[in-house]
Amino acid sequence: MKKIAKALALALTLALCVSVMGGCKKKAEETSATTTTEATESATESATESESESATESATESATEATSSEQAADGAYPVELTDIYGQKAVIKEEPKKVVSCSPACTEIIFSLGQESKLVGRTNYCNYPEAAASIESIGDINAPDVEKIVSLNPDVVVADSIFPKEAYDKLTGLGVTVVILNEETAVDGVYTKIENMGKILGATEQADQVIAEMKAKIDGVQEALKDVKNHPSVYYVVGFGEGGDWTATGETFINNIIELAGAENAAKSATGWAYNAEDLVRQDPNIIIIPAWADGTFQTTAPYKDLTAVKEGNIIVLESTDMLDRQCARNADAVEMLAKLIFPECFEEEGQKAA
To answer: Which residue has the higher pLDDT, 161 or 155?
Structure first.
């Protein structure tokens, strides 16, 4: 089934660095390819050289953190980051030309007001709409290295699905590449935005974006403070012949679901793989599906027999980008889900939450 193969591609991409699979529906492929698997964790702001070296070693071992100097914390240069391969990238001065090989990175750059520095983006960088006017360097998992080099970027930012072969070619040619890893909670997205601000010389803008995200999520928590019953939610990434795939407890989407006041039905699982038997046994209260699966999911066994399907407790998302990409819109995703799950807690603008 074409849609199912597509969903499998999405799940594997979300699971980190797995190639986007073909033979899927267009929307599902875009969703899979654009899932952000990025993270930059500031390991330390050291007061001594030995402390800085120790923090860098820790970041290399965990392959989940980016280290920066004390000067970088103040918006100065050079900025030093250790990537997922344990290689140190040094940004000596504020970059004027940036190539983004990640839709999430592109969104962050725009949210920081630094889009004038973007000279290249991937085919999947579709938000905001203005990103379409920037020259494309190809697909996330198959970037055109020659094209990237021709743009003469000061820095290339990417996530962990970026091919190692392309990374080696670019760094071998002297191009500065910063590959950011996946986060498992929204707090980690704050760190990623903060570090992108350091890279681009936009630390104040990064602080503002983070403050706005926190304020929006705090507003959701306030609206839901009196909620006693937290429904179980299952987020469909893939289903059917290609296997069942979802955001499990170790994913950052799980954190988004929890911040929206719900419980993730697949929280006890790991990775992105799931199975229909467990889904039937869990029988979640609410099911979230992407638009490409709408109709098919509800009429396919065994999913059609789920209580949520029978009772119509289905949330259909035209786009899952704000959930799948690790960026500023994750706060919007929390608010959106909370309003869909608990509409009674949110009233028209100007009125108090129930």
So the answer is: 155
